[in-house]
Amino acid sequence: MKKLYNIFFKVFLIIVFFQFQAISKERIKIGLIVPLTGDYSHIGKSILKSTRMALNKIDDERITIIPKDTKANPIDTLKVSKELNKLGIKIIIGPVFNESNKYLDELSEVTFLSFTNKIRNNPKNVISAGVNAISQINTIKKFLTNNNLQNTIFLVPETEYKREIENAIEKSNLILKEKFIYSKDPTLLTKQIEDLTRYRQRKQNLENEIRRIEKSNTLNKKKKISELKKKDTLGFINFDSVIIADFSESLKSVATSLLYTDVSSKRIKYITLNQWFDKTLLKETSLHPMYFPSINKTNFELFKNEYFKNFKSSPNQISFLSYDLVGLAYYLLVNNNFKADNNLFYKKNKFRGKMGIFEVNKKTITHQLNFYSIEDNNFKEIF
Question: Which pTM does this prediction carry?
Fold first, then answer.
């Protein structure tokens, strides 16, 4: 019996050995579709450099990246994707732009890790890998809960991105006091913010109170009137926090309009979306503190330094994402016996990248983000 057991055990070891040998020799090709010529070639070339950095870090000869030039054109994107598919490639990183996704459902057997942060109306085989609105609002929700902020107004611009925001609010189960859609036309914006904050009513309240005291026999009348005249408005604000879904100069315009209506960041929490550590916001001290979700800043700085050391130039934000997407694909492949099958991005999984934690589930990627404040001429990590 013991002899028979030893024979079975030896056979088992032989099978395991050969299976391991087969897996260890398995090679996986991953496609990369980015603009390498044309107006956006600088983006594509930076992404290509980042993927090479990732491959060097992984240091596994079983994985190869094959790049193709999309020319930032949907038709060319489909063409080069078909070329990669003929090589047996089932995972493709890219494309960069959301518009380039439109024809990719023709290649249903291929999974695309698109750099876009838009998740609505994508083909079923395209996974949005960018920092999408759901990831950002989930992080904002955590901040609101931690600070017991229960009366939040969400300001959303009248743009195409509005649909992404509305979808993210629903998916994250974010409870709001109000969602307010505002115009991108600066001539209309101020009036809209005035109405939202009841600015004229509060200003009238102040004037009425000054007149009332002037006519009264109140003690210290002059002092009280002097104190009131230092104010711009009088009356409560029925919200404790505002989320502004905007960027750059438009973000500053909305925040300045709030400030004009005497709703400062000292009275309520100003929150916005991922600003990629826009240094121009450090100069807007009247709007501080302002809060936003984003990627891991420390790792981003380290990545930029390593990239500059290698290539003597600075990377773009998408390059940082591409670095992690190579790592994500490799991690999932290793945990799936190097098989690029349909379950690869369907099974629930987590991957800790440089940007933060990627959560993969049912061909969807969300990010666990950090949260920052802008104050004292610095970006401060909250969590």
Answer: 0.89
